[in-house]
Amino acid sequence: MRVERIGPARAVRVGSRDQLAAAAAALGLRTGAPVLVVVGGADTMAADEEARMRAFMEVLVPHLDRTGATVVDGGTATGVMRAVGEARLAASGRFPLVGVVVDALARRSGSDTSEGGATLEPAHTHFLLVPGEDWGDESTWLAEFAAVLAEEAASLTLLANGGEVAWQDVARSVELDRGVVALAGSGRAADELASGSSPRARELRESGLIEAVEVDRPLEALAATVGRLG
How far is 71 from 37, CA to CA, in rounded Å? Predict the structure, then answer.
């Protein structure tokens, strides 16, 4: 499996899910350690919502470093993924930050004008490039790669804001028996899931794996989130 460089980050391409363990090894990622999956709003996330997520993550960074956790997200320079990358930089984080991105949609730089694509977030340390044609095709890969990395260690999905793809991400986490924390007050999918205000939200909440945490209560939210990561 060939490792390439995207800026300072290491990246590998996979074509089948039985390559995920080899991809983790090729990227030099530790397995059997806590994993935090971050999903939610992308390019339609409002600036104030993104800033709130960034501030929340800055508080979380030292704990992620202490526990040796890995963070996995969608890897593009938009919304929650940009917020996580910028928070890691601002707080001098050392944890691996892994973006799982559809290869055909991954722009390597701001000058890359691939149709329908998005620029990769530059603070990410690793990228897993996966097959697909549309946004959302990465959801199953992201969820399963996080499971490969965590093995028997604790793992958790954090949902902030989000649109239709976020519902896929949450569903994949639930299928893998991974707990999900919905940041209530962060907008859209997270609020809908936190309140159980729709049939799809109520169905997911019936799993017993969904917890709502108020985004405006950062200390409580922090405690609820990191308590599952050691």
Answer: 6
* 192-195 CB contacts, 8 Å cutoff, 24+ apart: 193/159
Alpha-carbon distance of 223 to 5, in angstroms, equals: 36
Q: At what angle do helices 47-67 and 218-226 cross, to 10 degrees?
A: 40
**Per-residue model confidence as pLDDT tens digits over 15-58:** 999 999 999 999 999 999 999 999 998 877 888 888 888 888 88
Q: What pTM, to 2 d.p., does this model score?
A: 0.93
Provide the CB-side half-sphere exposure for 39 (13 A, CA). 32
Q: Is 50 exposed, middle or buried (0-12, 13-18, 19+ CB in 10 A)?
A: buried
Residue 100 CA to residue 169 CA, distance in Å, equals 12
Cα–chain center distance at 150: 14
Cβ(143)–Cβ(37) under 8 Å?
yes
Confidence class for position 138, pLDDT limits 50, 70, 90: very high
Q: How far apart are CA 187 and CA 61, in angstroms?
A: 23
Question: CA 100 to CA 75: how far, in whole Å?
Answer: 6
- CA 155 – CA 31 distance, rounded (Å): 12
Helix (H) or strand (E) holding 11: strand 9-13
Label residue 151 left, alpha or beta by phi (over 0 means left) and psi (-120 to 50 means alpha). left
Six-digit token pair at 47?
């600036």
Closest CA to 104 of 83, 129, 75: 129
Q: What is the residue type of 30?
A: R
For residues 189 and 159, give the distance between their C-alpha atoms in angstroms, rounded to a whole number. Answer: 8
